[in-house]
Design a protein that fits this description.
By secondary structure, the chain is mainly alpha-helical. The chain has helices spanning 3-14, 27-36, 42-55, 59-64, 67-74, 80-96, 106-109, 117-127, 137-145, 155-165, 171-184, 203-209. It folds into two domains: 3-17 and 132-209, Helix-hairpin-Helix base-excision DNA repair enzymes (C-terminal) (Endonuclease Iii, domain 2, Orthogonal Bundle), CATH 1.10.1670; 27-127, Endonuclease III, domain 1 (Orthogonal Bundle), CATH 1.10.340.30. The chain binds iron/sulfur cluster (SF4). Iron/sulfur cluster binds at residues 145-146, 185-186, 191-193, 196, 198-199, 202, 204-205.
Length: 211
């Protein structure tokens, strides 16, 4: 299968839903959900992120909130102590240093406490169709199973290969679509192969069904 065709086919099917898991209407809401998201289910990020937004209306009020109160709200999410500190520090940094304006480069975004390279790229890819490629575990799992990359491919190699084949104006959208397919269909433990139209290209499927 050709990568470009694979992405076109994902786009036909999932373009209207691939940002699921990050429902947001403001930058504030998206930043909060990105900080909550590492190692957390989409459902918890969505629910607890909305609770934070409804409890503290902006960065300044979140920055001023007692740490205990933030911890109590986000307690069901993994690493809630660390994430509460990050939320408070990020809110303080954005309201005091950035004057509530979120930057539009990976480098500047990563200065916000709690925003690492993946979150920065995710932010940029969701807010605008940038040239950034989001290489996460879902993205890599799908590409490995479909024989596009090998299990020992490095991120830098994957990035160069991908950029060589896909137009830069759709880099972020394409990588988000692949990642979305990995989260919804090509799951790590129990992929929903019965719903998948790419079985005949798949290593994993043939290894399981040819035993
Ligand atoms: S056949 Fe199954 S394992 Fe292979 S790509 Fe499709 S969902 Fe993933």
């Amino acid at each position: 299968m050709v990568l470009k065709k694979f992405i076109e086919s994902l786009s036909d099917k999932y373009l209207n839903s691939y940002t699921e898991g990050f429902n947001y209407s403001t930058d504030y809401e998206l930043i909060i959900k990105l900080i909550l998201s590492p190692r957390a289910s989409e459902h918890k990020v969505e629910f607890l992120g909305n609770l934070i937004v409804s409890s503290y209306k902006d960065y300044k009020s979140l920055a001023m909130a007692p740490l205990d109160d933030i911890e109590n709200i986000i307690r069901p999410v993994g690493f809630f102590n660390q994430k509460a500190i990050r939320l408070k520090r990020a809110a303080f940094y954005i309201s005091s240093t950035l004057d509530n304006k979120i930057p539009n480069t990976t480098y500047e975004l990563m200065k916000i406490p709690g925003i690492g390279v993946k979150s920065a790229r995710k932010y940029l890819s969701l807010r605008s169709n940038t040239e950034e490629i989001i290489i996460d575990t879902h993205f890599k799992r799908v590409l490995k199973r479909l024989n596009f990359i090998s299990s020992n491919s490095k991120n830098s190699e994957i990035e160069n290969w991908f950029k060589g084949l896909i137009s830069k104006n759709i880099h972020s959208r394409s990588s988000n679509l692949i990642s979305y397919f990995g989260k919804k269909i090509c799951l790590n433990n129990k992929p929903k192969c019965d719903l998948c139209q790419y079985k005949r290209f798949c290593n994993f499927f043939s290894s399981v069904h040819n035993r």
